[in-house]
Design goal:
The complex is a heterodimer of chains A (274) and B (307). Chain A has 274 residues and is α/β, with parallel strands linked by helices. Helices cover 39% and strands 12% of the residues of chain A. Chain A has a single domain, classed as Rossmann fold (3-Layer(aba) Sandwich). In chain A, the strands form 2 sheets. Chain A has a 5-stranded parallel sheet, sandwiched between helices. In chain A, strands 4-5 form a two-stranded antiparallel ribbon. The radius of gyration of chain A is 17 Å and the shape is globular. The two termini of chain A are 32 Å apart. In chain B, the strands form 2 sheets. Chain B has a 7-stranded mixed sheet with strand order 2-1-3-4-6-5-10, sandwiched between helices. A 5-stranded mixed sheet of chain B has the order 7-9-8-11-12, sandwiched between helices. Chain B is globular. Chain B starts with a helix and ends with a helix. The chains are: A alpha/beta (274), B alpha/beta (307).
Chain lengths: 274, 307
């Protein structure tokens, strides 16, 4: 990892403002899901991932898959801020013919590694990327970000067992554990807890962190940097859906609601952006 | 056919470093030679077919050429979304090889019958669907699949199928193989029904009916030029497949025929499994009888269609 970025919280606040603005302008949902994983994306894109926006196709780049494709706006604002594409791409978000859709299409923009949107696909694909590195003797790492609702999907657990069998130490999973899925508490719908224990039982080195605490995230991600790893790494990140805006936090209506102009202004004020 | 597949993919892997073989916990000892010549490039992905196809797609992003192998019914039905999105939508060059396709595993019951697989996969944009007629056709089909600029599904039998071709034919995706020419009747055979087609044509010939045979090893893309030829020249064209009469070769030909602007004059007969599950205990020959895929069944319907 690079040294801690001093103003990462400020960067994250600005990204949140961008995400809420996108949702307001394009009238697209899944705002709560985008905000809950935003701090994870900030620490990944500003400190962890070995990527070069000028060489987005470099064969040695770290691979990142946002498997919870419905949080694509969070990925788009992070990639844009890191210089993968110009802001005019963002301004066109969601419009007919634009590069950036509500959920990413294949090769829609530099830095987007995989088109997600149907849950349960990102981890198997990420394993394939990580195994390709082993076969082709490359040193890149692969990170897959899952939602907790996504952990309902059987393919997540097929993949988890396979990655452990393959001793895929170059693979890291982050679970955005915001405790909600589309229509209910993730614990009530599928008895998800104890989630870290599940990853542990599936053969992964696993940690539980506050997904909005950069220092905790850094400590857990540092484990991925140890040499000769023989287990994949799972970081169960406790997060809050709608994090950063008081009237959105832990309110699942914001899975689908679109913020009004007044709500956008109020959110930007809370985030310290005005 | 599966032994020919294992042999050919092993030969190819000796020449190419980009081949990776993924198996769904099947083929005990079948790939021992492959593992020897290509250590580190064989993966037993367990009984987790959806994961296997996703993993293959991820490998293909780095230029590797993964080949996934397991029983056709398990490789296709439960994996349709991975095939559609991870392979089709992303246009990843992964080859799926479904073994024991059609009624090959008739005795194992409907769980193991794959008689709707082509109907499902034919709908996926950009995915080629191949069904070589015998092991001599399978080998060049595998090479053609590796050259194809997109994902490919190859549907093969199990073992011990009759060999029809004298030598390896010149297989091309999108092109049927004309085995014998005919004037009144053409039998278009898919996959392991090719030996049946040849025998039926021989018997029709002995009754004075001139019958051609083509192997439709490429279901998608379909050889519409051949269809144009046979439907304008013959009186009866019959499709044969160990697949439902819905969705497979018979349907693909019907679709072409319905919108064809050519002067088609032949009548189409489709032979395949009916639109129902097979509940009785059967073996491949008795399951074929149930479906009317027998010499007598085929020649009888063709002769009565000729009048």
């Amino acid at each position: 990892m690079t040294p801690p970025v001093e103003n990462l919280d400020r960067i994250a606040a600005e990204l949140r403002g961008e995400v809420i603005g996108l949702s307001h302008r394009a009238k697209t949902p899944h705002l709560g899901s985008s905000l809950s994983c935003l701090d994870l994306l900030a620490v990944l894109y500003w400190e962890f991932l070995r990527i070069d926006p000028k060489k987005p196709g470099s064969p040695d780049r770290d691979r990142f898959i946002l498997s919870k494709g419905h949080a694509a706006p969070a990925l788009y604002v992070a990639l844009c801020e890191r210089g993968f594409f110009p802001t005019k791409f963002l301004e066109e978000y969601g419009k007919d013919g634009a590069a950036l859709a509500e959920q990413p299409a294949p090769n829609c923009a530099a830095g987007v590694e995989w088109a997600t949107g149907s849950l349960g696909h990102g981890l198997p694909v990420g394993i394939g990327m990580a195994l390709a590195a082993r076969i082709q003797k490359r040193n890149y790492r692969t990170v897959v970000l899952l939602s907790d609702g996504e952990c309902n999907e059987g393919t997540v657990w097929e993949a988890a067992m396979f990655a452990a069998a393959q001793k895929l130490g170059s693979l890291t999973v982050l679970v955005d554990y915001n405790k909600w899925q589309a229509t209910g508490r993730s614990e009530e719908v599928m008895a998800l807890a104890p989630l870290r224990d599940k990853w542990e039982a599936f053969g992964w080195e696993s940690y539980e962190v506050d997904g909005h605490d950069f220092s905790e995230l850094r400590v857990a991600l540092a484990r991925a940097e140890l040499p000769d790893r023989t287990k994949p790494l799972a970081i169960v990140a406790h997060t809050i859906k709608g994090r950063g805006v008081s009237f959105m936090e832990d309110d699942n209506n914001w899975h689908y609601r679109i913020p009004s102009a007044e709500e956008l202004a109020a959110a930007r004020k809370e985030l310290g952006l005005v | 056919m599966r032994n020919a597949f294992a042999d050919e993919i092993t030969k190819i892997a000796q020449q190419r470093e980009d081949i990776v073989l993924l198996s769904g916990d099947i083929g005990n000892r079948l790939f021992d030679k492959f593992k020897n010549v290509s250590p580190g490039r064989f993966f037993n992905c367990g009984v987790a077919e959806a994961n296997m196809v996703g993993v293959a797609a991820g490998m293909a992003t780095s230029g590797l050429r993964p080949v996934c192998y397991t029983i056709a019914s398990f490789l296709t039905y439960r994996v349709v979304e991975q095939i559609r999105l991870d392979l089709g939508y992303h246009h990843q060059r992964v080859i799926l090889v479904g073994t024991g396709a059609g009624l090959s595993y008739a005795s194992l019951g409907s769980t193991h019958h794959s008689v709707e697989d082509m109907g499902m996969l034919r709908l996926i944009p950009g995915l080629a669907v191949l069904a070589p007629g015998d092991e001599k056709e399978l080998r060049p089909a595998l090479h053609a699949a590796l050259d194809y600029p997109g994902p490919v599904y190859i549907r093969i039998g199990k073992k011990g199928e009759l060999v029809v071709h004298d030598a390896e034919p010149e297989f091309a995706i999108g092109k049927a193989l004309r085995l014998r020419e005919g004037k009144e009747v053409w039998i278009l055979a898919l996959g392991n029904t090719l030996p049946l087609a040849v025998e039926a044509a021989t018997q029709l010939g002995s009754r004075g009916v001139s019958c051609g045979v083509a192997s439709m090893g490429s279901l998608k893309p379909l050889d519409t030029k051949l269809l144009g030829d046979v439907f304008t020249s013959a009186k009866v064209v019959a499709t044969l497949e160990e697949h439902s009469v819905l969705g497979g070769l018979g349907t693909a030909v019907s679709e072409w025929l319905a919108v064809s602007s050519g002067p088609a004059k032949a009548r189409l007969l489709t032979f395949g499994t009916p639109d129902e599950f097979l509940h009785a205990t059967t073996h491949q020959p008795s399951a074929r009888e149930w479906a009317g895929l027998t010499i007598e069944g085929i020649t009888g319907r063709i002769l009565s269609a000729l009048g």
